[in-house]
Each structure stands twice: as structure tokens, then as C-alpha cells.
Amino acid sequence: MIIKVNNFNDCKIIIEKAFYDYNNIIHSTLNYYSPLQFLDNWNNGIILIKISRGFLKKWKGGCI
To answer: Tell me: the pLDDT tens digits for 47-56?
Structure first.
């Protein structure tokens, strides 16, 4: 999509909206979290716990 921008302020608004949209939609590569949710979970250790549980399930099942 091409958007005509007439001035710096219009450009700034479009870019800020794009960043907001990107950071608030879910991403399959982030286990269906938005980047902001993923970062919050990562900082609180929740992601590491989930990864560890998945690894242990596979390990106990003999898949690794």
C-alpha cells in the first residue's frame, strides 16, 4: 500500500500506528502472543517455564 504523505506530522502518525498495530497483533512465531505480551511473559519468566515444560514432556516421552 502506498500512502501519500504531505508533511512530517502525517508521516509520524502513520508510522506510530503501524508500530502499534504490529506490536498488538498475535504472531504465530511468538506462540500466538503479541510482541508486547511475549515480552511481558519473557520478563516474568513465564515463557521460559512453558518452554521447559514442553522440553520435559518431549524428553520423558523419548522424543529427544
So the answer is: 777 766 665 5
